[in-house]
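Appendix B, record 7
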Amino acid sequence: MKGKILFLVIIQFFYLKAQQIILPVNDNFELKVKVKVSIHPSDSSKFIYEYPIKNMPTSGQPVKYFKISNERELPWPPIVDTVFPPINWRCIPNKPSWQAEWKPDIYPILHPGDSLSGFIFHDRKLPDIGYWYSEGMDTIVFPTVIEGDVEELEDSIQKIYYNKTPFGPGKYGYTVVSGPLPPGEWNFDSTMYFVSDSGFYHLIDRVNKCFEQNWLKERAKDHLTRMYERGLRHYQNNRVEQARKVLSQIIDYLERERGNLVFDEAFYVLYYRTKFVSEHLAWPVKK
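Structure tokens (predicted):
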């Protein structure tokens, strides 16, 4: 009887082993993403977005895939004016995203410790908060092993591997991208865009989101929030010029504290959006 029980246990062991799936750890890398935003030298209504990236020396695998998005899903739009990929990295035309498919001697991969620049796109949309997304080369150096019933495995694979992020199996983080205008409305013939008090609430929201990403020191976050609230009170009391004066003071503060209390990412988002709100305040006041 004991021999039969042992035999059944051995059979069950091999059955479970047969149901194991080894998943590659596709996020065994650490990608550092920088951003630079500037005004186009020949078209002041257009921004240049540049993204130098580095696969850190401590990474366990190369990087083969990098994208920028202002949506929780990778774009099919949004459309931008012009996209430039780094040399030898395949570009997806007219989209703010770049893909390098690993093919030996054709498309390079970004090895641990290597840097790459040249990811550039031009757009008229204002700087905003969005996402970068990247995938590394598949590896089983540190595999993830799952086991279970056949019907459960497919769902497990989706949850553990393919759905690691909103975009896929790699890694993602926050950066500065091109985004929609602050809340407002066009005039009857769509030639002028007007922002009301919703623009101030939008700027306060962006201050909080920048602080969440450690793009602002707490001292700057508190000061900016108070200033935007002061400008909002002026505007709501029909003192539009005073509201604009406060916004001008905020712009001066952002320039003065850039690199100290205000880091580049927050500067790009808040500086250009504050200027836009100031230049497009509706008069008479709309609430």
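Remarks on this record: Residues 1-18, 75-79, 90-106 have pLDDT under 50 and may be disordered. The two ends are 84 Å apart (CA to CA).
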